[in-house]
Amino acid sequence: MSALAKIRETFRRDQVFDFVNKQDYSRVDTSHGQILYVEDVSVSFDGFKAINELNFYIEVGELRCMIGPNGAGKTTMMDIITGKTRPDQGSVWFGQNINLLKMTEPEIAQAGVGRKFQKPTVFEHHDIFENLEMAMAGNKGVWSTFRARLSSEQHDQIASVMEIIGLSDCAKQRAGALSHGQKQWLEIGMLLMQNPKLLLVDEPVAGMTHQEMDKTGELLTSLAGEHSVVVVEHDMDFVRSIAKKVSVLHQGSILAEGSMDEVQNNQRVIEVYLGE
Amino acid sequence: MFYMLKGDRGGQALLLLLSIAVVLVPVLNLVVPEGHALHVSTFTVTLLGKYLAFALLAVAVDLVWGYMGILSLGHGAFFALGGYAMGMYLMLQIGDRGVYGNPDLPDFMVFLNWQEVPWFWQGFDNFWFAMIMVALVPGLLAFVFGALAFRSRVTGVYLSIMTQALTYALMLAFFRNEMGFGGNNGLTDFKDILGFSLQSDSTRVALFIASAAALALGYLACRAIVVSRLGKVVVAIRDTEDRVRFIGYRVDHIKLAIFTFSAVLAGIAGALYVPQVGIINPGEFSPLRSIELVVWVAIGGRATLYGAVLGAFIVNYSKTYLTGAAPEVWLFALGALFVLVTLYLPNGLAGLSKKKEAAA
């Protein structure tokens, strides 16, 4: 944005200054049924358009699968939603009232967007219980973190999440010693501890056995409804087993959207991705 | 009350030893007559006091390096700033007993033909003002430096080099006479503190006790941080910074808080060091000194806190011994010690006991 454009934006006459009208991150307004609005978003890296006028909406409680060939912009899309990358243009709103593009990563996480990385990322030197404890929703300022003590309800909450992700038996085990699949589940558990309204899950079944995949599928479907879930995945069988609605990403924009069958029969999708 | 020491056997041993030393050393020095086999000389008391100050400094470094993963090669700067603040107070206590006998100006200012004490020396004749500055000046520098560095997410080697540059720049600045801190010679020729002569045995013993108390309190404070949830998050930042950010912690704030706290501890250590050795000069800012203290922590064992104390004592005792017995060997010995520990004891000396525990 040029300096002039920035000044114009600052002095727009149809709205008050940001510091007068502070965003309230604590409550997401989803009265119109949508939890995430991604509109007209573009970003380029050194001239390469990673995301190109991307538009999509996620409904409350929906489980959406995003598929697409390598380099289609799936991870970049997640980076934009979680505040790691700033788009060149477009808007990303969480509910109707929270503008994600003006927030930092921790603020976005606090507002209720949880993210699982492509590579399972847990705190390897801490045990499972501690991993979940750190992720727990609450005031995460320096002083309150220093003074934090676990209440019995919080204990129960951690126990119930360990139940959900199937790791109840090994609360005191170091996360670094877990298997690949268990780490993936632990990371999903850490997201759940944050009480997120929207879960972004990047390749949850990469490197998993079939049994583990089935278990992950069950886990994700059970989470939808209470939370909105966006799953980015390569594995078609897995996507078919869990997805109601699928979006196909290609060269940074949505190529097709619909049920798995519709998408698979879409001529353009067959050309770029599924076919041959 | 000492909940933070639960399960920390090294820390329990350290506090026990400190309490014994605080009782025993003064008795052996002041009560047991000189010439008696059990008499501890005042020289030894001061030496031990100096080691205690170094140990506190090592604990401060261990907190940011061992736990948070920030390899600071500039902690000597915070130590020296705390030392200078104390030195300025001591300088103004000399009064007309200096070589030039000027009641208002310290000797080096008379020598430089200055007419009055510069503005930034104002207030340092008050002990409590000086003590506040001991914590405030290093803390403020760390806060400003950290705020800039952590906000722009400078990490790893780049951050280490910047801390190194920071202490080097301060060294060059303090070497200059115009800075008003005594230039090359620094501040020395101290006479008394709070009205007590620095040469007397009882003052030396009091400084020793103060150092032991500061180390104990500093250790407990660091330990309280380490066992809290904040401490867990700090270690998590060391291991996977991105994950911490995406579960909603302001990583830059946490880093800044810990870094500043550590700098304040280093400053206090410096303030205890200066009256015991009787001099502070820009050599304390030299990058070599900062690297040396990282070596103490590495040898003692990172991320254990008591290991840092152990390392500070062992390396400094060897230094005292070797620089007396065979001065030319010292640097080689330090290098060899560092290489050997890195190769065979990656967790330092504290790692030895852990290995035994794991094997048992």
Describe the structure in your own words:
Helix content of chain A is 36%, strand content 23%. Chain A has a domain at 28-122 and 196-274: 3-Layer(aba) Sandwich (Rossmann fold). Chain A has a six-stranded mixed sheet with strand order 6-7-8-3-9-10, with helices on both faces. Chain A has a four-stranded antiparallel sheet with strand order 2-1-4-5, with helices on one face. Chain A is of the alpha/beta class and 276 residues long. In chain A, β1 and β2 (48-59) form a beta hairpin. Chain A has helices spanning 3-10, 74-81, 105-111, 128-135, 142-147, 152-164, 180-193, 210-223, 236-242, 260-265, 267-274, and strands at 34-45, 48-59, 63-67, 89-94, 98-99, 113-116, 198-202, 228-232, 245-250, 253-258. Chain B has a single domain, classed as ABC transporter involved in vitamin B12 uptake, BtuC (Orthogonal Bundle). Chain B contains 14 helices and four strands. In chain B, the strands form two sheets. In chain B, strands 1-4 form a two-stranded antiparallel ribbon. In chain B, strands 2-3 form a two-stranded antiparallel sheet. In chain B, a hairpin with a 2-residue loop joins β2 and β3 (196-197). The two termini of chain B are 30 Å apart.
Primary descriptors:
heterodimer, A: 276 residues, alpha/beta, Rossmann fold, 6-stranded mixed sheet, 4-stranded antiparallel sheet, 10 strands, 36% helix, 23% strand, globular, B: 360 residues, mainly alpha, ABC transporter involved in vitamin B12 uptake, BtuC, two-stranded antiparallel sheet, two-stranded antiparallel ribbon, 69% helix, 2% strand
Write the layout of secondary structure elements.
The complex is a heterodimer of chains A (276) and B (360).
Chain A: H1 3-10, E1 34-45, E2 48-59, E3 63-67, H2 74-81, E4 89-94, E5 98-99, H3 105-111, E6 113-116, H4 128-135, H5 142-147, H6 152-164, H7 180-193, E7 198-202, H8 210-223, E8 228-232, H9 236-242, E9 245-250, E10 253-258, H10 260-265, H11 267-274
Parallel strand pairs in A: 3-8, 3-9, 6-7, 7-8
Antiparallel strand pairs in A: 1-2, 1-4, 4-5, 9-10
Helix pairs in contact in A: 4-6, 4-7, 6-7
Chain B: H1 9-31, H2 42-67, H3 75-93, H4 107-111, H5 127-151, H6 156-175, E1 187-188, E2 192-193, E3 196-197, H7 201-227, H8 229-239, H9 241-246, H10 251-277, E4 279-280, H11 287-300, H12 306-325, H13 330-344, H14 348-359
Antiparallel strand pairs in B: 1-4, 2-3
